[in-house]
Every structure is written in structure tokens, then in C-alpha cells.
TrEMBL record:
This is Thiol:disulfide interchange protein. The lineage of its organism: Bacteria, Pseudomonadati, Pseudomonadota, Gammaproteobacteria, Moraxellales. Its main location: periplasm. The keyword Nucleus does not apply. CDD domains: DsbA_DsbC_DsbG. Belongs to the thioredoxin family. DsbC subfamily. It is found in: Periplasm. Residues 118-239 form the Thioredoxin-like fold domain. PANTHER family: THIOL:DISULFIDE INTERCHANGE PROTEIN DSBC-RELATED, THIOL:DISULFIDE INTERCHANGE PROTEIN DSBG. Required for disulfide bond formation in some periplasmic proteins. Acts by transferring its disulfide bond to other proteins and is reduced in the process. The gene is dsbG. GO terms for molecular function: oxidoreductase activity. It holds the Pfam family Thioredoxin_2. Keywords: Oxidoreductase, Periplasm, Redox-active center, Signal. It comes from Acinetobacter nematophilus.
Amino acid sequence: MIDLKTLGIYSLSLVLSGSLFAADADFLKNKLEKEGYHFVQKIDAPDGLEGWTGYKDEYPSTLFISKDQKHYIVGDLFDASGKNLTEQAIDTHVKGAVLDEIWKSLEKSTWIQDGDTNAKKIVYVFNDPNCPYCHTFWQHARPFVASGQVQLRHIMVGVIRPSSKGQAATILNSANPAEIFKQYNLSNGKNKLVEMKNIPKTLADQLDANTQLMDKYGFYATPAMVWKNASGEIQSQQGAPKDIQKLFNESL
């Protein structure tokens, strides 16, 4: 004879086991999310694996998690003919999300506004106070800025000379950074800035974050520009452009 109490306990244990299994089904996904991986779209995967597109630190990838939650693979997936399915998946699902993240990171950096805040187009410029090419770029950009078509956002860094960081701090710490920056560029950098020796920690951290952002995007010289073209795709250039009109026309 079957004991109904025993049956009830057995049934409950099955329900609890099922709940635990369901909770563990996303164990690796949850772990990876906590470590900074952004899952964007689930994709087809080989048997025994769950496939995803996503990105970490703005680097896109495809990721495959074993159904037993013991292993995961980050890398390219090819079919039998040698076609790279990862590239297609990233272009379809992740590219736009990563570009949005890049633009947001530029927005969050510490920069000096140059031009109409309502200008249609924005160009971010990594700028070192001791960079003569930055002064040249600033001068050549005046017609586009003055017309209200373009606003420049100068992301201040200190990478050229030991004094650069202190001079950038002097600009940013002034009562009117935009005006000090303007006058400095009008003099073509000849009106030397006082180097701040004891930079407040908050300001030093902001300048360090700007430099890290510059390194992250692979720039090693200033000026370095980042903008969106007419199609909304992010473009970049390192060094003073030979044809500044072409650069700004691409951003309009």
C-alpha cells in the first residue's frame, strides 16, 4: 500500500529539484554578467551549447555555454564550409550596441565644450596642451564651429610632456575652462599655462580616465578625433587632418 505522506514528500522533492535545476540553468550566464559581459542576443549553436552574442569592455564576441553549466567558450564559430558565423552574428546583433557604448563612454569623459551646444554634429577631440597640431586643428575648425554646424568636445589629456597633465589640470580647474582654453589656442599655445603641481585627486582621476580612454581606443598621438558620419557610424582619425573640410563634411 502506498503511503500518501511519502508520495507527497517525494513529489515535493521533485519540484524542489526542478526549481534548483532551473535556477542553475543560468549559472554561468549570471556569473559572466557580474564579471562585465553584456549578453545581447541568443543565437543558434552546436548541440550541447547555448549560443550568445555580446560584448565586454566594448569588445564584441560570440559566447557558447555548455548545457551542463560546467564550461563556456568565447570565440569564433565556423560552419563546415569554413564560413565565419561569428562575424555575421556580431554585425547583425552587437555592432550597434558596442558603438552606442563607445559614444556613451566619450560623453562621460571630462571635456571642454567648444561651440554651440545645439550644433547638429559633435566631434570629440583628444587634446594635449603641449600639442602644436592641436592648436592648428583648433584654428582650422573655427569656421565650422562659428557657423553653428559643429561642436567640438575637447577631451583633455596629459601625454606629450611631464608638464602636460598639470597644464590640463590648470585649464579644467579654472573658473571658466572654455574661455581659458580659447585664449590659449588663440595664442597658438604661446601664452604658457602654469603647471598645477598638486592636482586634486578628483581632477587627477578624471585626467587619468581620459588618458585610459585614449589608450583603449588605440590612439597614441593628439589630436585624435571621433565622430559619427551621416549614417550614424562612428569614425575616427589620429593626427591633424590634411583636409579638415572633408572631415567635417563627413560628420554633417
